TrEMBL record:
<dbReference type="InterPro" id="IPR036890">
    <property type="entry name" value="HATPase_C_sf"/>
</dbReference>
<keyword id="KW-0808">Transferase</keyword>
<dbReference type="InterPro" id="IPR003661">
    <property type="entry name" value="HisK_dim/P_dom"/>
</dbReference>
<dbReference type="GO" id="GO:0000155">
    <property type="term" value="F:phosphorelay sensor kinase activity"/>
</dbReference>
<dbReference type="InterPro" id="IPR035965">
    <property type="entry name" value="PAS-like_dom_sf"/>
</dbReference>
<dbReference type="InterPro" id="IPR005467">
    <property type="entry name" value="His_kinase_dom"/>
</dbReference>
<dbReference type="GO" id="GO:0005524">
    <property type="term" value="F:ATP binding"/>
</dbReference>
<keyword id="KW-0597">Phosphoprotein</keyword>
<keyword id="KW-0547">Nucleotide-binding</keyword>
<dbReference type="InterPro" id="IPR036097">
    <property type="entry name" value="HisK_dim/P_sf"/>
</dbReference>
<dbReference type="Pfam" id="PF00512">
    <property type="entry name" value="HisKA"/>
</dbReference>
<keyword id="KW-0067">ATP-binding</keyword>
<keyword id="KW-0418">Kinase</keyword>
<protein>
    <recommendedName>
        <fullName>Histidine kinase domain-containing protein</fullName>
    </recommendedName>
</protein>
<feature type="domain" description="Histidine kinase">
    <location>
        <begin position="156"/>
        <end position="333"/>
    </location>
</feature>
<keyword id="KW-0902">Two-component regulatory system</keyword>
Amino acid sequence: MVITSGITDTDGISSVGPSTAELLNGLATAVLLLDNGRRVHYLNSAAEGLLNISANRAVGQLAEELLGMGAVLQGAVLAATTGHTTTFREIEIQQGSASHRKEEPIRVDCTVSPFPAGVDSFWVLAELVAVESLVPKALGSDWREHHVATNQIIQALAHEIKNPLGGLRGAAQLLNRQLPTADLQDYTDIIIRESDRLTKLVDRMTGPRKLHAWELFNLHEALEHVRHLIEAEFKGKIEVQRDYDPSIPDATGHKDYLIQAILNVARNAAQAVDGRGNIRFRTRVRRQFTVGQRRYRHVLEASIQDAGPGIPLELQEKIFLPMITGRSDGTGL
C-alpha cells in the first residue's frame, strides 16, 4: 500500500486533473487518494474490488477507519507531509465499511509517500497490494500445541519401535546364512540395511538435536534403493517405471533423510493405486528455479507419479503436518 500526503483543496479529485484520475483508474493495483486530513477523496476500481466497497460510500471517510489501520496510518500520513515514504509489509486491513464489517481482514503491502498534484496542492496516494500470508490460515493458532503433542507421541513410539529392531536384524543375519541363492539373500540384505537405517532414524528422533554431516550421493542410487523396497513390500504387484535424466550430477545432502522422504511418498503412491499397477519415478534438472524465495541456477527434481484419486481438497493445505492423513488406516507420521 502506498500513501502520499500533502495539502489538498476541497474540490476533490478534479484538482488532480482528469488525466491523472484516468491513469489511476486504469491501474490493476488498488489506489486511494487522501487529503492531509486523511479523508478519502478518490479510489480506483481495483481498490473498490479489493476493499469490497463502492467509491460513493468510501469517499469522505477517514482512511484509518475505512482500512482499520488506526495510528499506524496516521503516522505514515504525517511522515508523508514532510516528504518521507513509509512502507509496511503484510499488514492487515479491513474490507467493507466500518458499520458493515462481515469480511475477514486481508493482508497487504503498504507504502506511504507524498504525491504532489501541483504547485500548491498535494495528495496522499494509497496503493494496496494484496499478499498471501506465509503461514496458511488452515494451520491456525493451535499449530504449536499440535506440534508439541506430536513430538511427545513420536518420542513414545520411537522407544517402542527401537526395541524389536535388534531382534529383527539378528534374525535376518541368521536367515541370510542359510539361504541357498544370492537372489534370496538380496531380500535379507534389504532387511538388515533397513533395520540399521531405522535404528539411526529412531536415535535422531529420541536424541538431542544436532547438525549432521552432509555427504556426496547419487540421487538415482537413492531412488533405486527405494524401488527395491517398494517392489519387495508389494510382492511384485507394483511396477516402478523409471524416467531418469542421465545428466544429473551427484548431490550433497543427507542421503538417509532423502531416502526416508522418497520411501514415504512412494509408499503413499503405491497405496493410492491399491497396491497394484504402475508408479513412475522421474528426475530432471531445473534451471533458474526458485525454492523458498531463493533463486538457484540449477536444482535437481525427483517426482513420484501415480494414477490414484489424489489428495482431498480440504487436506491439501495441511497435508505435511504431522498426524494428518487422508487414509482411514494412516497415521500421518
